[in-house]
Specification:
Structural class: alpha/beta
Strand content: 5-15%
Number of strands: 7
Strand order of the largest sheet: 1-7-6-4-5
Helix content: 25-40%
Number of domains: 2
Radius of gyration: 30 Å
Length: 251
């Protein structure tokens, strides 16, 4: 059998090389495509929660706080107890054993940029919440603090309501917006009463018209709720406004 001519052999070689290059190019495109898809999935995953939060919170944009969450009937009656700890500062980093879960008054930290926590931020998670000792200083300055327990933290609907409530307190120029929504964990102290997953607290001087220097009238104020109630919170903050606190004009 005659050998293929030289030109024929070269044509076969060129054809093989061409097919190989085509296969390599297709593999390259496939690799780029897979990498691009993975990158898009990673970006999408990172963007999912902020987009979901924005979508979930749209419904709160045009309604008042009393319309968010459960009715006030989801909450227990407000209770008070004689308060102590006014101007009782302890070194930052010191652990304070509070009798109540959560506290509404007591000794607290007093260090710039640490305690009290700045007014700008309204909502916190377990990962970034200020120390309880710092938040008690916020209470001394007239803040109302919404504490949510671990059950609420795992409940998407309750957390949507808490986020919605927090959006109603944006800003720092109006001291009526002194509000924080923060988690309460088993490491912080005893659990809330059975069936209650939310607690509102305030440090009162016994009425906005009382003498702030008279510590004998000061009380801690609590209201526990089975779930977040904007209606109950609004009533709570009307009855116990920021002015009714040991240091109402301090940020």
């Amino acid at each position: 059998m005659a050998k293929p001519a030289k030109n024929d052999r070269q044509a076969v070689i060129d054809s093989i090389r061409k097919k190989q290059k085509g296969a390599d190019k297709r593999r390259g495109f496939a690799i780029v495509g897979v990498c691009s898809l993975v990158a898009l999935l990673l970006i999408g995953a990172a963007a999912y929660q902020p987009i979901k939060d924005w979508w979930d919170l749209r419904k709160f944009n045009d309604i008042d706080i009393a319309s968010i969450g459960a009715p006030a009937s989801a909450c227990q009656k407000i209770t008070t107890r004689e308060a102590t700890g006014n101007q009782e500062h302890v070194p930052t980093g010191t652990t304070v054993d509070y009798e109540d879960s959560p506290p509404a008054f007591g000794a607290h930290w007093n260090e710039a940029n640490v305690a009290p926590d700045p007014m700008e931020r309204k909502l916190y998670s377990v990962e970034d919440r200020p120390a309880v000792e710092a938040l008690v200083h916020n209470l001394e300055h007239g803040y109302t603090v919404l504490w949510y327990d671990e059950t609420a933290a795992k409940d998407d609907d309750m957390m949507d309501d808490i986020r919605g409530i927090a959006t109603k307190f944006k800003g720092t120029s109006n001291l009526r917006l002194k509000f924080k929504a923060v988690p309460w964990t088993e490491e912080d102290g005893e659990p809330f009463p059975d069936g209650q997953h939310i607690a509102y607290t305030h440090w009162s001087i016994g009425g906005a018209g009382n003498d702030v220097s008279d510590t004998s009238t000061q009380v801690g104020v609590w209201q526990y709720c089975a779930e977040p109630s904007g209606e109950a919170l609004e009533d709570f903050m009307i009855e116990y406004p920021y002015m009714d606190s040991p240091e109402p004009n301090a940020m």
